[in-house]
Design brief:
Layout lengths: L10 H11 L4 H8 L3 H14 L20 H14 L3 H8 L3 H10 L41
Helix pairs in contact: 1-2, 1-3, 2-3, 5-6
């Protein structure tokens, strides 16, 4: 079975495996290509068990998360935040959850902190610098400053 991206196989890893399979010692190949013997053995094992597809990078993300919060509960958390504009403690009490869990859900969905929202409308506001001496224009290059000496 060929990998859909077989032509994109990492060249260095394939070279390493081919040299070992050609009869060179693993330690010599590892030294030639600047890696450890452990690394060379790892790619050799993956090639033998999976073929060229085993030489691709793998994601470090978990294959499954058995205790992940249900998507409908996450939607409910975000809905309560948008509707009532309350903090994680209040939302957690409403839903019978831990406040830290609610905080992680809000962060994962990139919900802005309450301090960054307008109190009346709930629209995110941009707080300017404390000094007020700032040139800010609608388009880049609208204000050009030339210092002539």
């Amino acid at each position: 079975m060929s990998h859909p991206n077989a032509r994109l196989t990492p060249r260095g890893r394939l070279l390493r495996v081919e040299r070992i399979l050609a009869g060179y010692r693993v330690s010599d190949v590892a030294a030639q290509l600047g890696c450890s013997r452990t690394c060379a053995y790892k790619w050799l094992y993956r090639y033998r068990t999976e073929g060229p597809a085993g030489l691709f990078d793998r994601t470090s993300a978990a294959h499954r998360i058995p205790r992940r919060i249900a998507p409908e509960l996450e939607r409910r958390v975000c809905e309560l935040r948008r509707r009532y504009r309350r903090g994680p403690e209040w939302i957690a009490a409403e839903l019978g959850m831990c406040a830290a869990t609610v905080g992680r859900i809000l962060a994962r969905h990139r919900m802005p902190a309450l301090r960054d929202l307008d109190a009346l409308t709930g629209i995110p506001i941009r707080r300017g610098p404390a000094t007020g001496v700032r040139y800010e224009r609608a388009t880049p290059g609208e204000l050009i400053h030339l210092d002539v000496k």
